Structure formats: structure tokens, C-alpha cells
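Fold it.
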Amino acid sequence: MLARILIPALTFTLTLQVFSQDEISAPRLKSNNNYWGIGYYASGSLSFLDGFINNSGIQLGYGGIMEFTYNDSKRDNLMILGYQRFTSPNVTNYYETFEFSIGPRFDINKNLFTEFSAGGLMITKNKLQKFWYGDVNSNYYKSEGDFGFELSAALGRKVKICSTMDFFTKLRLLTAYSFNKEFYMFLNAACGVTFNTKKYIPKNISKISYLGIAILGGLNKPGYTINESNWAGSYGLEINYRTSKKIELIASGVYNAILREDDYNAYYHYINSITAGGRFFINQNPLTAFIEFAGGYYAYTYSTGRPITGDYLNPTKEYAGLNIGTGIKYNITGFLNLLAKSNYNFLLKEDFSPAPNYLTLQGGVRLNL
């Protein structure tokens, strides 16, 4: 099991190592100005037509978008990953959309652009349910899903921050026709920052630090569980070793409290993990975006009930797991950096395992030795 994790992780890291080199040994016959990019957006939405509420009413939503781009000198080629959550008139229910789409972005002039995309949209209705067992009841959400073919068009504006960063605002109209023959329409306003791989020449060139240590703290949120799970604490220690300007190896140990609640009790479970992998930096200026991939060991400890003695039983189950994430790093000095990142953790487990997959949001301080 460990070999199945380490081999993909090593392959991923070596691949990024090759593509991160500033120069390739074989000479290029023709230079080009093509570049890659990644963007992070916060967004708000209005749902005009929604099959779950009989095509009536307007619902407010919020969420985020992550965008990958490749510029071929004529256009930006987009891959969009988006999430929106809509408030139901019944406060115990909510609706979610998950978007995956691709398409082009064209510049109208120096600052204005238009973009189009096509792909898939998953719509999920989550309805609060009560589960009774004797005199005790628990809350959980029952999900009903729908999937459709999605088209979107957008008009936006970009403002250059520096050669490797831009600020974007855009207004998007999304439509989807689902397998259940329902029509959906959403108006989405988003703003965010994009980072790219254009060359950057720093004013002050500092010595590269190859070894660093980061202290991280934040929150985690599990995916679907039979009991409702809330945000809880996440704490970690990370060691990194830089192998090139855009690649570093990372090893981390993280503690995640998992909070589950019913009407009478709150149960704190927890997951400890030790993982290793690679981190790839998109750009090289003081504010830097990155993506990362890691795999390793996860141990889940949970409460199974209250026996006659009044004590909880806390068995531990062990799993192999993977995580993928993205984030930003800000260089305060050559010695001190700030980190902010988000990772989604997948545990390799059987279908009915009590251990959840979970999202972490962490920030912290990094010391370059």
C-alpha cells in the first residue's frame, strides 16, 4: 500500500522538476511567450431557475472558483473548477453546485475581456433529516443529486498588479440542462487574483534557503458523514527542502479534530497524519502561488459510545491516504515567510468506513534555515 502511494508521488515530483527548469538542455529553434497561470476567486451568485424548487424564486449563493490557464499568445485557454452554495427558503436545507468546464478567454482591449466555457454541472439538494434511536436523535443531511451539461459566458476586467500577478473581476451567466430534464440558470459575480509563470527579475537577489520549517494552524471540515460534522481545529508542522527555484519536497505531520454533534452530545474524534510529497511554485515574486501533492499515513480515532462505566471507547483505524492542495506564500524577509493553503484529503478505505475525507484551511509562519 505504501509503495502505491510513494511511486505516484515520486513520479509527480520528478515531472514537476522537469517542467520547472528555467532552461532546457536542448536549444530551442524558436522562442515563445506562452505561459501558465492559476487564479483564485471569491464569488456570489443568484439562482433564477432551479428545478428543485419548481422553477420559481431567486436564491442567494456564495462560493469560490479556481481557474487554470494556458496562454498561447492569442488567448487564455481555461479550465474552471467552481463551487457555489445556495440558501434555501427553508433554512434547514441548502443547495450546492460543482462546476467543471473548459473554454477560451479573449482580450477585447488592454483591460477588458470576454470568456466562454462548456462542461458539466453537478447540483446537489441537501435536506436535514432526523434519525431516532430510542430516546436519542441525531441530525444528518439526505442528498439528492442532478447532473447537467453547462454553458457559460462572461464579461470582465483585469488590472495588472505586476508582471506575474493580475486582479480580475467578472460577471458570468451559467445555464445547465440536466439528465432529469430540468433547466438551471445562475448569475455569478467573481473577483480574485491570478498568478502566472512569466519571467520575474527581482530588484534584490537574496540567497536561496534550501531548508525550512513551518508551523500551521487552521480549521477542517469533513465531507458527508451520518452525523452532521462542523468546523474544528487543524494544527501541523511542515519541513520543506527546495530542489530548484520552483520545486520543493515537503513532509508534514498534522492533527485534525473532527467534531460531530447530535441533539444531546458533541463528539470530538481526531485524525493524525504523516505525509510527504512535492510542491510546485507558479511564479517567483514575493507573493507566490503553488500547488502541492502528498501521500502517506492517516490514523482515525473515534468514539463508539458510552458504556455503563461512563467512559467512551476510542478505537483507532489506520489508512493510507492522499492529499492535493493549493495556496500562497508571502516573503516578508529571506528568513521569514507567511503561508496560507487549502488541502483536500482522500483516505483509501472501504465504502462503509467511519473515517471521513476532509478539507483543511491552514495558515502559518515559515522559517527558512
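Residues 1-30 have pLDDT under 50 and may be disordered.
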